[in-house]
Automatic annotation (TrEMBL):
Protein name according to UniProt: Glutamate 5-kinase
Gene3D superfamilies registered for this protein in UniProt: Acetylglutamate kinase-like (3.40.1160.10)
Positions bound to substrate: S47, D132, N144
Role summary: Catalyzes the transfer of a phosphate group to glutamate to form L-glutamate 5-phosphate.
Encoding gene per record: proB
Binding-site list for ATP: K7, S164, D165, T206, G207, G208, I209, V210, T211, K212
Gene Ontology terms for molecular function: ATP binding; glutamate 5-kinase activity
EC numbers for this chain: 2.7.2.11
CDD domains: AAK_G5K_ProB
Length: 255
C-alpha cells in the first residue's frame, strides 16, 4: 500500500477570480483513480481558500487579516465542491486544518497522526490546508508547499506530488527565459538555489518555485521523493503516478 500526498496550488484552482471547477474536477478524477484502481492512500493538501473567498467578497487582499477572513469564507466553499465531486466516486472527504506550530508539539502531532490513521484506514480522503484564521504572521508556513512537505513527513507518506502552475523545475525561470530547460531528475539542491526571489505566479499564491525547492530539500533529507508537474494538464502526473512512467515533470530524489 503506497501513501501519497498531493498538493495543489491556488493558480490551478482559480481562474479570473472564479473557482476553476473543471480543473478541480480533473484533480478529483485523478485521485479517484489512484485510490480505487491503484489502491493508494491519498492525502490532499489544497490551497485556494483565500482565492475562493475572494469570489464571494472583494476585500483588500494585501491586509493579512482580510486574507484570513477570505480563507474563512473560501475554505467551506472549496470543501463543498470537493465533496460534491468526490461523491460521484463514492469517496468521502474529511477536513484537517493545521498550522506549523502543531508539528512543534508532540501531543498535537500525535493527535493529528491518530486522526489521519483512522481516516485513511476507513478509506476517507483527508483534505488539508493551513489554518489561516488562527495562524499569525510568524506562525504561517508562508505557503502550502512546505506544509505539504511536513504533512508527507509526519504522516509517513511514500511521496509528495505537487501539482502547480508550472510543469516542472527548469534550470532558470521559464517565464523570463525562452531557452529554459525542464530538469526531469534532481538529486541535490544547493542552498544558493533557495536564496532566489519568491516568484508566485498568482496574486493569491504565496509560494513560487523557492518554496517548492525548500519542500523538496526537506523531503530529500528525509528520503522521501517529491514530484513536481502541471496541475493544469494532468497528463504527466497521470503517467507518473498511475502508469508509473516518468515521461515529464521533475522528480526530486536523493541518490
Ligand atoms: N526555475 C524555475 N522553474 C520553474 N518555475 C519557476 C522557476 N523560477 C521561477 N518560477 C516561477 O514559479 C512559479 C510556480 O510557483 P507558484 O506560482 O507559487 O505555484 P503554485 O500556485 O502552484 O504554488 C512558476 O509559474 C514560475 O513563474
Ligand atoms: N492557505 C492558503 C494557501 C495559499 C498558498 O500557499 O498558495 P499556493 O502558493 O498556491 O500553494 C489558501 O488556501 O488560500
Amino acid at each position: 500500500m503506497k501513501r501519497l500526498v498531493i498538493k495543489v496550488g491556488t493558480a490551478v484552482l482559480t481562474q479570473n477570480n472564479e473557482l476553476a471547477l473543471e480543473r478541480l474536477g480533473n484533480l478529483v478524477d485523478l485521485i479517484a483513480k489512484l485510490k480505487n484502481e491503484k489502491n493508494y492512500e491519498v492525502i490532499l493538501v489544497s490551497s485556494g481558500a483565500v482565492g475562493a473567498g475572494f469570489t464571494k467578497l472583494k476585500l483588500d487582499k494585501k491586509q493579512i487579516a482580510n486574507r484570513q477572513a477570505l480563507a474563512a469564507i473560501g475554505q467551506p466553499l472549496l470543501m463543498k465542491h470537493y465533496k460534491k465531486k468526490f461523491q460521484e466516486y463514492d469517496i468521502k472527504c474529511a477536513q484537517m486544518l493545521l498550522i506549523a506550530d502543531d508539528f512543534d508539539s508532540r501531543k498535537r502531532t500525535k493527535n493529528a497522526q491518530n486522526v489521519m490513521e483512522i481516516l485513511l484506514s476507513n478509506n476517507i480522503l483527508p483534505i488539508l490546508n493551513e489554518n489561516d484564521v488562527i495562524a499569525n504572521y510568524e506562525l504561517l508556513f508562508g505557503d502550502n508547499d512546505q506544509l505539504a512537505a511536513h504533512v508527507a513527513y509526519h504522516f509517513k507518506a511514500d511521496m509528495l506530488a505537487i501539482l502547480s502552475d508550472i510543469d516542472g523545475y527548469y534550470n532558470k525561470n521559464p517565464r523570463e527565459f525562452d531557452d529554459a530547460v525542464l530538469q526531469k531528475n534532481i538529486s541535490f539542491i544547493d542552498d544558493c538555489e533557495l536564496e532566489m526571489k519568491h516568484t508566485p505566479n498568482s496574486e493569491f499564491a504565496t509560494g513560487g518555485i523557492v518554496t517548492k525547492l525548500k519542500a523538496a530539500k526537506f523531503l530529500m533529507n528525509n528520503n522521501i521523493p517529491m514530484y513536481l508537474s502541471s496541475g493544469f494538464d494532468l497528463t504527466n502526473a497521470y503517467d507518473f503516478l498511475v502508469e508509473e512512467n516518468h515521461k515529464s515533470g521533475t522528480l526530486f530524489k536523493a541518490q
